[in-house]
Amino acid sequence: MRLEALKSDPQAFSDHFDVVKGMSDEDWCVNMKRQSQNGSSLIFAEENGVLVGMSGGRQYQFPDFSHNYSLQSLFVSPHQRRRGFGKRLLRAHIEFALKKNPGIANFLCEIYSSQVESINLHIDFGFIVVGRIVEFRKAKSQKSDLIYMQLRSKTLKL
Ligand SMILES: CC(C)(COP(=O)(O)OP(=O)(O)OC[C@H]1O[C@@H](n2cnc3c(N)ncnc32)[C@H](O)[C@@H]1OP(=O)(O)O)[C@@H](O)C(=O)NCCC(=O)NCCS
User: Fold this and answer.
1) pLDDT digits (tens, 9 = 90+) for 58-111
2) Which residues form ligand 1's pocket by a CB distance below 6 Å?
3) Distance CA 92, CA 12 (A)
4) Residue 142: CB partners within 8 Å, gap ≥ 6?
């Protein structure tokens, strides 16, 4: 699913398809194990046994920051978009994180300005833009800003 995401929407992510395409299943398992030891989680959406989307996230580890949760890697397969999977993945991930740790006060994400659909989705959900790095990415002729978004748990209406 991650390979599909990097191939179909390279401008949305900071990894490169060419860098990860050579990874074996074993490499992915080792990677996922390491990530989960660092507090990361992945949630998948499937329909009729076929994966259609994913959402990643990580609770900050050090005690002073552990009330923050970073959402990453949200992706829905191109042919399955505009069917509500993105919204449901985001909601499921937030519910999962709060169930695991009801003390989470902030959900954070970083989105490239080119990803208007993702920005809209997060705004619909109650996220607000709290910062921006101008021209963070320069890929060939395309420049995009990096936008920081935040959702305070106390404002959440799930
Ligand atoms: C962002 C993404 C996950 C949305 O998935 P989705 O399943 O299509 O989203 P939903 O159907 O749940 O739509 C939820 C809301 O997102 C916004 N949205 C989705 N697609 C949009 C589009 N093409 N244009 C504008 N807004 C859009 C809308 O606000 C929409 O609500 P609405 O249907 O009531 O108008 C998907 O477009 C995607 O994978 N994009 C490429 C990868 C990416 O940008 N990931 C984010 C990295 S942070």
Assistant:
1) 999 999 999 999 999 999 999 999 999 999 999 999 999 999 999 999 999 999
2) 9, 12, 74-76, 81-87, 109, 111, 115-118, 120-121, 124
3) 21
4) 11, 114
Which letter does DSSP use for residue 24 in this model? -
Spatial separation of the C-alpha atoms in residues 57 and 158, rounded to whole Å: 18
- Burial of residue 141, with CB atoms counted within 10 A of its CB: 0-12 exposed, 13-18 middle, 19 or more buried: exposed
Q: What is the pTM of this model?
A: 0.94
**What are the residues whose beta carbons fall under 8 Å from the beta carbon of 158, sequence distance 6 or more?**
91, 94, 95
Q: What is the CATH number of the domain that holds 141?
A: 3.40.630.30
Q: Which ligand 1 atom is the nearest neighbour of the CA of 73?
A: 47
Compute and round to an integer the Cα radius of gyration of the chain.
16
Range of the structural domain that residue 11 is part of: 2-155
> Structurally, how many domains does the chain consist of?
1
